Amino acid sequence: MELKKFLQNAAHVKPTTNQLQMLRETPFYAFVHFSPNTYTNLEWGDGTEDPAIFNPTELDCEQWVKAIKSAGMKGVVLTAKHHDGFCLWQTKYTEHSMKNSPYKNGKGDIVKETADACKKHGLKFGFYLSPWDRNSKLYGSDEYNTYYKNQLTELLTNYGEIFYVWFDGACGEGPNGKKQVYDFKGYIELIEKYQPNAAIFHDTGIIRWCGNEAGAAPYAQWAVVPVELCSMNKPQTQGALVEGDLSFSYNSDIAIGSLETIIYSKGLVFAPAETDMSIRPGWFYHEDEKPHSLERLFNTYINSVGNNTTFNLNIPPMPNGKFNDEDVKRLLELGEMLENEFGTNLAENCEIETLTGYGETQPEYIIKLNGVKKVKYVELAERISEGQRISNFAIFTKNKDGYYNKAAQSTTVGSRKIVKITLTETDEIKIRIMASRDVPDMEWIKVY
Ligand code: FUL
After folding, report:
1. What's the confidence (pLDDT) of residue 260?
2. How many CB atoms lie within 10 A of CB 55?
3. Do the Cβ atoms of 55 and 425 come closer than 8 Å?
4. Quick check: pTM over 0.90?
5. 172 lines ligand 1 (CB under 6 A)
6. Using a 6 Å cutoff on CB, does residue 170 contact ligand 1?
C-alpha cells in the first residue's frame, strides 16, 4: 500500500463511544486499593488472611469521594477484590468476604457504600476485580472462570451504572499451585451485556496500559496502535507491509503507534492508554509512606490527561477506613492548582485564523489574544472522535518587535495536549503543524 494512503487510513481509525467518553468526559479518575493488605502492610496478600482482620472501624466512603472530587477527578475505581481473593461486597460465592469481617457484623458492603457515595456526589463508579485469586480453591480450573463470571455479574448488576471495569493482567499461581487460563472473551461479553457503556482496561486493549506504574507515559502518545499489541480491539485498517511478523510488548520507552511501530503491523486499532500511579509509593496504605509532591502529581497530570491518555490516580484508605489527612490535603491542593493554572482560557472568544500556505496537512493557527497576556501553557485538542493525525507541531509567541519566537516543539496531540512554555508576555500565538497523517481537525485551542 502506498505510504500516504496507509497514513491517511491510520488517521481515520476512530474510538468507540465508550473510549470517547473516557477521553472526553472522564479523563481523570481515582483508584482505591483497599483489602486485607491494608491490615497486613503488604502489597500482595497470599489469600490465607483471616477475614476478621479487615475491620475499618471509621469507614467513610463519602470522605473518599469528596477528597477525590476536590482534585477534579470524575470517577472512582474500587478494588472489589485484589489478588488475595477477599471480596469487599456481599457475594454469594465465597466466605472469603465481608461476611466474615467484623465490620457491621458481617453485613457490610463496601462496594455499595462506595457506589452510593459516588452517586450522591456526582462521580462515576467502576471496579477492579482481580482475575488472579490466591484464595479460591477453584483457581486453575474451568470452574474458576464460572466463579469469576458469577462475581462479575454480581458487580455488574447490583450497583447501578458502571463506567469502567479494570482487568489486572497479573496471572500467578493459585492456592493449589496451578495457573488459570482466563476467559477474557467471556468476561467481556458479560460487561457488554449488563453495562454496555462501560469502558474496559485490559492489556490487550479497549483502554490499554501506558507501560509502567510510575505515571510516565511515553511522550509521543498515539491512540492508534498495532493490533498485535491490542488484539481485543477490532482492526479498522490493514497494515502497510502485512508480511511482517513482529511481536509487540509494552515498553514505556517506545512511542507505540509511531510510524516505525505501525508500519509492520497487520492492522490498526484505536486503543488509548491509561496512565496509572499511586499518590504514595505503594498501591495499598503503609504508615511509613508519604504522598508524592504536588509538583510530581501536577506534572503527571500534564503528561497524562495533557498527553492523550487518561489518568488513574490511586489513593489508599488507612486501616480505619479513611483517607489520610495528608492525602486529602494533597488532593485539594492538586484541584486548586489545576483550577489556578487551567481555569481561565486566555483564548476564549479570540479570533483563531487558519492559514494553509504550507499545504493542507501543515496548517498554521494564529491566535490573536485580546491584548498582551502572560502565557504559560498552550492546550490543543484534535477532534479525536474522527481519529488522530498530528505527529509534529511547534508553538511560537510574537514578541514586542513583531517577530515570532519559537516557544516549544512537540509531537502528538490526540485527545488533548498541554504544552508548558516559559512564561511569556505576548498578544499573539502561532501554532504550526509540521507533520500530520491527514488534514488536521482541531477541536479546540486554549491558552493559559
Ligand atoms: C498490578 C497489581 O499487581 C498491583 O497490586 C496493583 O493492583 C496494580 C494497579 O496492578 O498489576
Report:
1. 84
2. 15
3. no
4. yes
5. no
6. yes
